[in-house]
Design a protein that fits this description.
Elements: E1 4-8, E2 12-19, E3 31-39, H1 41-51, E4 55-63, H2 66-77, E5 85-88, E6 93-99, E7 105-110, E8 129-132, H3 138-147, E9 152-155, H4 164-169, E10 172-176, H5 177-181, E11 192-195, E12 201-205, E13 208-213, H6 226-239, H7 244-258
Helix pairs in contact: 1-6, 6-7
Length: 279
């Protein structure tokens, strides 16, 4: 049976400019092209999980504009259940992204409808696992955390202050190095996966490394969706009851595949394609 997962987070339109070198403060540079792509950390993780084989519900909000219709279609086409996606009056979220020739990126997010999710009407399928990020109102994240009865995974991105109750509800945190350093409570958290870019990732239990993995990417064209693909793969692998070390390796393999795709929502194969033999 496929893993059952609810993803709560942002659904944005990505406007991606490709440049040789990202502009410095006060500098203007010429871009080679501008792409309009579906994105948002929540949608990226939901679509990645669905493409990897999970049954996924998306919890978020879109505006009643053309971008909202476009983003809803992208979720549908990837097999994500959108019955819990709210449509509000106004603009959908937009992310302005600059990607340089090395695939590195800088991002400005204008959340739009993502800040207007009605937390009171959010529901979660009983027993389903939940994966959340922090691009939406914390009240929504907290409502989902209290109503969910399955495991709760939190990607602490962007970094925000979290209540003690919410921190205690999380079964696994996923962060990059900057997010880890900006969140001191993670040093004593029961389970944290720390991503290290090209150096792979480690699993920490109360600050102690208990597993590590690294998969070298053969080609890097865009790192925008790599962390989201990694997070989705990690969660799906754990829900499929793979060992923690195997799940970490699977996630690194998926992340390495993601950076070779120019899209924020990269094309992925089913999870088994990336997985080592079960241990």
């Amino acid at each position: 049976m496929s893993a059952q997962l609810a993803v709560v987070g942002a659904i944005n339109l990505d406007l991606v400019a490709s440049v040789d070198n990202a502009p410095r403060p006060g500098e203007t540079v010429l871009g080679s092209d501008l792409r309009r792509l579906p994105g948002g950390k929540g949608a990226n993780q939901a679509i990645a999980a669905a493409r990897l084989g999970a049954q996924v519900d998306m919890i978020g909000a879109l505006g009643d504009d053309d971008a909202g219709a476009e983003l809803l279609a992208a979720l549908h086409e990837s097999g994500v259940d959108t019955s819990r996606v709210q449509v509000v009056h106004g603009a959908s979220g937009v992310a302005l992204i600059v990607v340089d020739s090395a695939g590195e990126n800088s991002i400005v997010v204008c959340p739009g409808a993502g800040l207007h999710i009605d937390a009171r009407s959010v529901t979660v399928t009983p027993g389903a696992a939940v994966l959340a990020q922090l691009e939406v109102d914390l009240a929504v994240i907290e409502q989902v955390a209290w109503r969910a009865t399955g495991p709760f995974f939190l990607n602490v991105s962007p970094v925000r202050d979290l209540s003690r109750g919410l921190r205690d509800r999380v079964d696994l945190f996923v962060v990059n190095q900057g997010e880890y350093e900006a969140s001191p409570f993670l040093a004593t958290a029961p389970r944290v996966v720390l991503t290290l870019g090209a150096e792979g990732a480690v699993l920490l239990k109360r600050g102690r490394v208990v597993a590590k993995a690294r998969v070298r990417a053969e080609r890097v064209v865009n790192t925008v969706g790599a962390g989201d693909a990694f997070t989705a793969a990690l969660v799906v692998a754990l829900l499929e009851r793979r060992s923690e070390s195997d799940a970490l390796e699977v996630a690194c393999r998926v992340g390495a595949a993601a950076v070779a795709d120019h899209k924020s929502q990269p094309t992925l194969k089913p999870l088994a394609f990336y997985a080592p033999p079960r241990t």
